[in-house]
Model the fold of this input.
Amino acid sequence: MDDGIVRHYSGDGDLADAISEALKRAGKDPASLTAADLASVDEFHIRGRKATLELASAMALTAGSQVLDIGSGLGGPARTLAESIGCHVTGIDLTPAFCAAAAALSRWVGLSDRVDFRVGDATALPFDAASFDAAMTVHVAMNIARKDRMYAEARRVLRPGGRFAVYDVLQGEGGAVNYPVPWARDPSISHLATPAQMEVLLADAGFKILAIEDSTEASQTWFQDMAARMSAQAPAVTFQAFLGNDFPAMGRNQVINLRERRIRTVSYICEA
Ligand SMILES: C[S@@+](CC[C@H](N)C(=O)[O-])C[C@H]1O[C@@H](n2cnc3c(N)ncnc32)[C@H](O)[C@@H]1O
Done:
């Protein structure tokens, strides 16, 4: 396990408690929340819940699908799929504090029977071959140097013909990334692939790429809209709950990195 990554994401103390306290301070009752109420903290990626719903539709899921979410974080994407499609989602994540909070948040919104979360490493998945109908990974591979192993593992656990949706931050053509960013405070745990490398990595792992979508411009617009929304009314709880006081600087750097094309956001819909 990579301690640097776990330390980066863990925050101080009990994350579910911190989120619950922030919600109560904002006048929300954690006992009567919907998955959408948590989206400002548990969809930990650019373009939030909307991006997850796009992947859900591209994966051609049904209520009977068994789905794997690789690098599931606080479980927002898994719950969005479970709630909107009715499928079952297993999340796996390296950070124990995130897995514990993901289970608590799922209880609050009454989705515990359709999602479960396990601590584990994307490069050595603890599942049998062909165990899942579909898999996704959202903003995770930026922390993973051995992407060849990660995608080979995703291919192994998918049934033949199953869909694999990848949505990640990639290295852009505009130069080195400005740090801190939400996935790393410095380059030691940051490993961005370029768009050209991604196509080779996915093909080498045995995937057929069905569609590629570069959402960089939409990501810039999303940040502008979010700034406007936050100045009108700040959400009850944000990623600051675990990223701490570095969070505002991380957000500013994301805007600059996107504008200067130091990063790109791209999704790949693949078939095993
Ligand atoms: C930016 S968060 C995204 C979380 C979630 N996919 C989402 O979009 O809300 C990145 C996540 O990747 C996880 N992660 C990083 N390296 C990993 C690895 N080798 N195996 C499993 N999870 C990993 C981190 O613990 C963290 O939860």
Summary: The radius of gyration is 17 Å.
